[in-house]
Every structure is written in C-alpha cells, then in structure tokens.
Amino acid sequence: MSIELTQPSQSTQPLLRVARIDKSYGSTKILKACSLEIVPKETIVVIGPSGSGKSTLLRCLNLLETVDAGKIFFEGRELTRERNRQHLVRQEIGMVFQNFELFSHLSAAENIMLAPMKVLGMSRHDAHDLALSLLDKVRLRDRADAFPDEISGGQQQRVAIARALAMKPKLMLYDEPTSALDPEMIREVLDVMAELSAEGMTSIVVTHEMGFARRAADKIVFMDAGEVVETATSEQFFSGVVHERARRFLDQILH
Amino acid sequence: MSLHLLLDYLGSAEFARGAAVTLVLTLLSLFFGMVIGLALALLQSIPSRIARTFSFVYLWLFRGTPVLFQIIFIYNVLPSFGIRFSAFVCAVLALSLNEGAFMCEIFRSGLHSVKRGQRTAGLALGMTGTKVLLHIVLPQALRVVLPPIGNQMIGMLKLSALVSVIAVQELLLIANQTASANFRYLEALSAAGIYYLALTTLFMLFQGWLERSLDPKRKTRMRRISLTERLLGVGQPVVR
Prior knowledge:
Shape of chain A: globular
Largest sheet of chain B: none
Number of strands of chain A: 10
Strand order of the largest sheet of chain A: 6-7-8-3-9-10
Distance between the termini of chain B: 60 Å
Mean pLDDT of chain B: 87
Structural class of chain A: alpha/beta
CATH superfamily of the largest domain in chain A: P-loop containing nucleotide triphosphate hydrolases
Low-confidence stretches of chain A: 1-9
Largest sheet of chain A: 6 strands, mixed
Radius of gyration of chain A: 18 Å
Number of domains of chain A: 2
Strand content of chain B: under 5%
Largest interface: A-B, 35 and 24 residues
CATH class of the largest domain in chain A: Alpha Beta
Helix content of chain B: over 70%
Number of helices of chain A: 10
Low-confidence stretches of chain B: 222-227, 235-240
CATH superfamily of chain B: MetI-like
CATH topology of chain B: MetI-like fold
CATH architecture of chain B: Orthogonal Bundle
Oligomer: heterodimer
Helix content of chain A: 25-40%
Mean pLDDT of chain A: 90
Shape of chain B: flat
Order of helices and strands of chain A: HEEEHEEHEHHHEHEHEEHH
Structural class of chain B: mainly alpha
Number of domains of chain B: 1
Number of helices of chain B: 10
Number of strands of chain B: 0
Distance between the termini of chain A: 37 Å
C-alpha cells in the first residue's frame, strides 16, 4: 500500500503543472522559465542556494506573487487567469511559512478554527472538534489553549501545519519550514511532515534538510539563479547522477 | 469659599445638564472621529494616488489649524453657504473632523504594527482581503492603539470646553455664566472641575476595563495575582 503511495503511476494527471514561468522584481530576474509538475500524493523537495528563487516559485503557486509570463495549471484550471478569484484557489492550497506566522491574538486551537469558520462557514463547535483532532495529529492536543508566544518554535510550526490542514487542502506548500528553528526542534516538525507525505498528502517542500529529502521526497528539484537546473527522482539524485551545479551545492551543504 | 454653595452647584440641574452635554459631545465626537480616522488610515494603505493625496490634504488641513479656529469657522462660515446647523451639531462636526486627523495617525501606526506575514498567512488560508482585515489585522491593531486612544478620549473631554465660544451649553460655559452672575468663581469653577475629574476618572476606568477585556489571555490568567505575590515575584504565570 505504502509503495503505491510513494510511487504514483505515470498515467496520473498532474495536480499542478507549472509551465515556463518568469518573475522579476524591477530589473532583477528572480525566476527564469521555471517548469514543474506534481501528481497527486507526490512529495517534491526543492533545494538550491539561497537567492535561487525557491521561495518565490512557491509563492507564485498559490498566487501570493503574480507571474510575469508562463502558466500555472491546478487540476487543469489555469491559475494565472484567476486573478480575481485568488482566494478560492488558496483555499485548496495550504502553506506553511518559515516564521510560522501564527495569529498572535488567537490560541493554538483558535488559529486552526479561524479559516474553517470564516471561510467555509463551519460552526464554532465543529471547528473546535476539527482543531482538536488536527492538534492530535501534530501531537499538541494538550496545548490547544496556549497562545503562540507561550509555546516553542517547533510547536508553533506544528500548529501552523495543523492550521493549513484545517482547510483540507489538495496541496501543501512548505517554505523553509525548519529554517527558523533551533536544531533540537527540527526533528519534530520534519516527522509530522514526513508522516503527512507518507499518508499521501501532495506536498512541495523548500528546505535545506537533505535528510528529509532522502526520507520523504519522491522527486528533487534543484534550482540555481532562478532556473530549475535539475529534476530527478530521489533515487537518481542521491545515487549521484546529478548535474554539476547540483553536485557543487550538495558538496557545500554536506561539507 | 462656601462649601454649601459648592454642593449646591454640584447638585444643581444646570451643572448636571452641562456635564451631560459635555459627555455626549465628547462621546459623539470621539465616535465619529474614530470612524473618520480609521477610514483615512485605510485610504492611506490602498495603492491609489487619489486616496493617499486626499488623506494627506485632510491631515494637513485639520492638524495644521487650531481646533478653536475650526469650530468658529464651521459655525460662522457654513451658514453663508446656506448650510445651517445648530451650535451643538457644529460643535460635534468640528471636533469630529479634527479628531479624525489625529485618530488617523493612531490607526495608521496600529495597522503598521501588524507584520506583513500575518496578512500573508491569512490570504494563504483563502481569506479575502476584507476578512483578513476584519479577523486578523484589526484585532491585533486594536490592542496597539488602545493606550493612545485612551489619551485622545481624555483629551477630547477637555477639548470640548472650547465649544463654549459658539454658545453650546456645556459644563465650562455653565460654570462661567453662573459665576458671572454673583462673582463666586471659586465655587462655580470648583464644581465644574469636580465634574471634569469625575468624567476623566470614568474614562480611565473604562480604558482599563477595555484593555483587560481585549487581552486574549484573559481566560488563562483568570487567577488574580495579589500585590504581595507580585512584589515577591511568586505566582507568576509560567511561560513555556
């Protein structure tokens, strides 16, 4: 069963397809003709040096950034044309941020309840049940009433994951989810993410954690200077069949 | 000083009515001032040159001229354009318009204090811009703006005395009129002063209550920490 989950058949329609997108800030080109494809239940890890455009690419996928050229298809719909319905697209794509960004005026449970109540019109009672079951999933049920500044970074990030899951997204985007964490807290967050991936949550993860890539990724995308330099299956990538630029990057981060 | 006369004034219907006019005038002007201020602050945050220019010109005009000038101007100039209001309405109008300019700056700093990432997180959850503003940005901004708004509340109470120049029967005018009849200024002004202090005290208590009720952690901090406990540094809520 788990083999089926981690190795989707080739015939599956892509959930998301990115076709040669460009993005510039002023005269600086951040993304150059980037392409990407992800099928349901797949986990893609995006790696690359800082400033290579990984985060920008991720933010283009849920329309937090508008692309200058190229197309993004989500379930066959062209997102780049849905500018005035961005919020509907984002309801189906969850996102987790480097700095957690939990709402500081709400408790852990309320953070999770907010979007289901205000966006989906769920009752307070149902939303609370949902919040507790999701907190269970990220092993934080006992901190339901804690406020963001009362829990550790690792716990905040797990609440943030639960908050994104509350909208029952079809795709999860993680933007360097462990970069702001102390080393001893990285593990607990990565474990939750790996678990979700194993259960078939389609995910795109920008991270420097090669251990996680090895453990949970189906595909590795290597970016450098705004370009997707290489897309490889996890096995190919870690057996060393990689592009020379990727090789150099790997040498650097693995010392 | 005649204590008897002072008590007489404090209990008199005129003084009570004057204080009521002052209170109503203050509350109305604060309310409309906050509405104007919030609207202006939001106008400044949208990417439209016209909106921002309007907001800038408004602030420039109403912060740049004395309130007293604005009160007299509205009371005396509007009728020449055929717009006639009672003195009370003119007073509320002038004080609200002036207050709006100052409230705008307070709200702007409040909105500014909410980190950009908080909005992004709301948007990423599929909320519309309005919902993000309503459920994420404003609740957080409100906590930041409460202390300066408390200042404005008390400031407005005292500012309202200025409208005596257009013969609105508020507290100070009543006191002044009463005193000028028998030259017992000490008693009349003391009575007005006591009313002002009572009203400001009321406002301070209200502000304190509001700050406590807006504190998100009030539920977890229900247990009151006694003064001795606080001095000894024990019984503090444990964080983390």
